[in-house]
Amino acid sequence: MDQNALEKIKKTVTENPIVLYMKGTPQFPQCGFSGRAAQVLKACGVENYVAVNVLADQEVFDNLKYYADFPTFPQCYIKGELIGGSDIMLAMSETGELQKLIQNALH
Amino acid sequence: MITPENVKAFIQDGLECEHIEVEGDGRHFDAVIVSKAFEGIGMLQQQRLVFQKLGNKMDVIHALSLKTFTPEQWGKKI
Asked: What is the ipTM of this complex?
């Protein structure tokens, strides 16, 4: 566990309303689950969010699992809070819960 | 290679499940888990619980998609 990396993650998720840590980019996801997570945000009408490609940042790749005690990618943060991975994002978008959190975060 | 049966056993080893299904290709797995342990906690906590039980087994499981239900939620679903 690297304290500097954890600080960096904290800074990113607290200074930006919506952050998606994923493998690849929203345009070119490198993993099906990451692609699905980006699709869910798109379907919720989110155009501006910070997408962090964990494959391009070894520090974050190695340490994100410690930040919110969650071992897999992707991870979506809204207002600094971990929402979950693609399964949870999809389930919450089906109930409308995710859209509410997004609205709250952006306004 | 890790089989869906392995993953199922890993999960059941730490968590009492009313029902469990695991499918996968050796790298990506999908699990449906019904457990009383999920009662009263949110989806994120439910997944954390499963991952905690799996512990360092997650190093050999490349990707695991989880659908978690309490027995009550599962009863309504089927």
From this structure: 0.86
Instruction: Report long-range pairs for B13-21 (Cβ below 8 Å, ≥24 apart).
Output: B13/B53, B14/B52, B14/B53, B14/B54, B14/B55, B15/B49, B15/B50, B15/B53, B18/B71, B18/B74, B19/B74
Assess contact for A40 and A11: CB atoms under 8 A: no
Domains defined along chain A, listed by start: 3-100 (3.40.30.10)
pTM confidence score = 0.92
CA angle B52, A87, B16 (to 5 degrees): 40
Give residues with Cβ within 8 angstroms of A66, minimum separation 6: A1, A6
Number of Cβ within a 10 Å radius of residue B21 = 13
- Count CB atoms within 10 A of the CB of residue B36: 13
- B23: domain CATH number is 3.30.300.90
With 90 as the cut, is the pLDDT of residue A21 above it? yes
Q: Which of residues 14-53 of B touch A (CB under 8 A)?
A: 28, 43-44, 47-48, 51
Domain that holds residue B52: 4-77
For chain A, say whether B60 makes contact (Cβ under 8 Å).
no
